């Protein structure tokens, strides 16, 4: 086993956003040397790493040269140059997750076909190379409304997804490859984080539930554990393991799923990295997802994925009508509430709907946590000066 | 209330050791700008702060000039220039804990007299300006063996403390001011961390217990909660609050205490900062001591001091006979044990008894945690290459 702790071993991380930043708490805890690269000079990970580089993650030479100087390479964002990863692997560099896994995930059309090939339950879909192909399919009645449109590439945080109910909804859609998915009514949106190390040890975190705002169709709370039947939860965790195995995935894989009206579990999409749905784990779990990611990609033993206490996560997004230097209004009010921890990502400028941080609420009693979460939501505001 | 989060507000920290390093996880979490100063260019806090300076913490000008450029000044080590703190305070700078508090703590003779003045139970003692004065007192029979000798200044991690049983034990003692304390037999060594913010909110953490190795008179495990009667625990927490109030302390105050054979609590000494006895809180508590320190000195609401689960802390100290580049032997073995988290401080060189890190073991069942802690202790070794 390599000596990772206070040694010359170097972990490289492509991407320096909030996920990378939270990963760095763990590399500091273990005193693992890190190199980070991000397109922004003001990336949240700019400090706490041992070496920071500004660069384009989609550029072959940039990623290749960055990867050459580290011992293990990982990423905290899917939008990275896969060819560079493959070249590094061919030269013997350890890249986790692998370029092969990422290739099957990065493009949503490829990802959906992968599920079909591996008999993983997912909503029926069609893939289109261009927006023209999509509209033509509608004209030919090969595709009928309503459906869910998803851009094959570049989608993030709900961008690149639209529910198409009328022909007018098609007008603003982006050009480029996309998928059209059958709109399946569901009871719950769930997620399971699976983790695997190169030695083959596999663990799943408990199922989390996304609770939506009753009117605005937006996730308000991520709740762990999900308030669902044990049988459904077991099925969700089993399917998540199956997905992870199919991808031969190493590291964290967040599997987003729907629980249909008749309690079937279908896979929506995956993210091969730490995930918003696992943020609760920093305060809630025996091993938080960021430490777990480090353990996994360095082939260390995986930590306990159980929860110490119930956890709820609320995203802190920029309020509408506010653009400029950020102020977290009432943050001291929510910090006075029981079991409440704000996480501020470090973006100096807010703008409407920008993800600026999150708040975790932990409590032995998940219903009590849910009450406090609502109080948090009603008080905190991300505004500009 | 000042805007601390992603703002121009700057917190200054005197000292960049492991305590500062762990405090920086929390300033990063809240995105609070930090300046750190330490005599060593390789200080564990050298990264993760926004600005690092190498400098002598006992030098007036160095501390004064460093403090001038921050909004709130704190320290993670007692050995800092108090006159510089006082001057900064006189100019309106917020310094927490205050120079006045530190003055009553930094010198152990002053600290003991402070307890006497404030009727805080402590072992009977005599203060001596020099070693000559001490030996003279023995000759004059004003002081009788056995007693506990403590250097008034510069003691750290058990350095500067000796049990004097024979006249020969006196020979190796350092020159300089010291105290001689009555040797009181005790059942348990306990500690309580008290926290207070400038607004006067006060909380105590649960009592922790130091379990000693049966032969080598060394702390092996710090256990939270202490395995003592509720009545004794309540008394210990009450006395700790009284101590903190007497010092008009702001921030964390770790109060080390003895539980005597007849269940009296007497105060041994205090540390006005995060403390080894509170390290378990990172994994064990709703609010860890480092986050709590940030909340306190910024006059934010204090967090819940209760434990989520039982916690045990084992120090990682350099093994005897090993000096040089550090290797954490069997670290992957202990990471495979349930609820085990190593913390590696980032010192590249080990030497016998150097504090290199710590390991936390958490479990709902404290007896189970204690079993695992013993396994950890029996496996991990801090050696050189």
From TrEMBL, chains A, B:
EC number: 6.3.4.18
GO CC field: cytosol
Domain ATP-grasp residue range list: 112-298
Residues that coordinate or bind ATP: 108, 150, 181-184, 189, 268-269
Binding partners and assembly: Homodimer.
Pathway: Purine metabolism; IMP biosynthesis via de novo pathway; 5-amino-1-(5-phospho-D-ribosyl)imidazole-4-carboxylate from 5-amino-1-(5-phospho-D-ribosyl)imidazole (N5-CAIR route): step 1/2
Full protein name: N5-carboxyaminoimidazole ribonucleotide synthase
One example of a Gene Ontology biological process annotation: 'de novo' IMP biosynthetic process
Catalysis: reaction(s): 5-amino-1-(5-phospho-beta-D-ribosyl)imidazole + hydrogencarbonate + ATP = 5-carboxyamino-1-(5-phospho-D-ribosyl)imidazole + ADP + phosphate + 2 H(+)
Gene3D superfamilies hit by this protein: 3.40.50.20, ATP-grasp fold, A domain (3.30.1490.20), ATP-grasp fold, B domain (3.30.470.20)
GO MF annotation terms: 5-(carboxyamino)imidazole ribonucleotide synthase activity; ATP binding; metal ion binding; phosphoribosylaminoimidazole carboxylase activity
Family: Belongs to the PurK/PurT family.
Pfam families associated with the record: ATP-grasp, PurK_C, RS_preATP-grasp-like
Stated role: Catalyzes the ATP-dependent conversion of 5-aminoimidazole ribonucleotide (AIR) and HCO(3)- to N5-carboxyaminoimidazole ribonucleotide (N5-CAIR).
Alphabetically ordered keywords of this record: ATP-binding, Decarboxylase, Ligase, Lyase, Nucleotide-binding, Purine biosynthesis
């Amino acid at each position: 086993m390599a000596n990772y702790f206070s040694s010359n071993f170097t972990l490289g991380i492509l991407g320096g956003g909030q996920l990378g930043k939270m990963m760095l708490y763990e590399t500091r805890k273990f005193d693992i040397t890190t190199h980070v690269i991000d397109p922004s000079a003001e990336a949240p990970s700019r400090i706490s790493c041992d070496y920071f580089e500004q660069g384009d993650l989609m550029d072959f030479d940039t990623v290749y040269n960055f990867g050459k100087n580290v011992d293990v390479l990982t990423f905290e964002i899917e939008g990275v140059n896969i060819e560079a990863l493959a070249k590094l692997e061919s030269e013997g560099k350890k890249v986790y997750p692998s370029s092969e896994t990422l290739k099957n995930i990065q493009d949503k059309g490829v990802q959906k076909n992968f599920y079909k090939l591996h008999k993983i339950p997912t909503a029926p879909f069609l893939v289109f190379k261009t927006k023209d192909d999509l509209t033509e399919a509608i004209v030919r009645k090969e595709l009928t409304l309503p459906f869910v449109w998803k851009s094959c590439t570049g989608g993030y945080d709900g961008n690149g997804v639209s529910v198409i109910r009328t022909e007018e909804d098609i007008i603003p859609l982006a050009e480029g490859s996309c998928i059209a998915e059958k709109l399946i009514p569901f009871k719950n949106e769930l997620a399971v984080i699976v983790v695997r190390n190169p030695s083959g040890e596999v663990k799943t975190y408990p199922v989390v539930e996304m609770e939506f705002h009753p009117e605005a169709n937006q996730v308000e709370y991520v709740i762990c554990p999900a308030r669902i039947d044990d049988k459904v939860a077991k099925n969700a965790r089993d399917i998540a393991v199956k997905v992870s195995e199919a991808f031969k995935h190493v590291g964290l894989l967040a599997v987003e799923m729907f629980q249909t009206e008749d309690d079937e579990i279908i896979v929506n999409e995956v993210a091969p990295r730490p995930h918003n749905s696992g943020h609760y784990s920093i305060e809630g779990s025996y091993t938080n997802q960021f430490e777990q990611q480090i353990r996994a990609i360095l082939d260390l033993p995986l930590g306990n994925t159980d929860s110490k206490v119930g956890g709820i996560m609320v995203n802190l997004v920029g309020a509408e009508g506010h653009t400029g230097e950020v102020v977290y209004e009432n943050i001291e009010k929510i910090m006075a509430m029981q079991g409440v921890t704000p996480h501020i990502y470090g973006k100096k400028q807010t703008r409407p709907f920008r993800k600026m941080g999150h708040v975790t609420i932990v409590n032995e009693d998940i219903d009590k946590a849910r009450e406090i979460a609502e109080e948090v939501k009603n008080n905190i505001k991300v505004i500009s000066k």
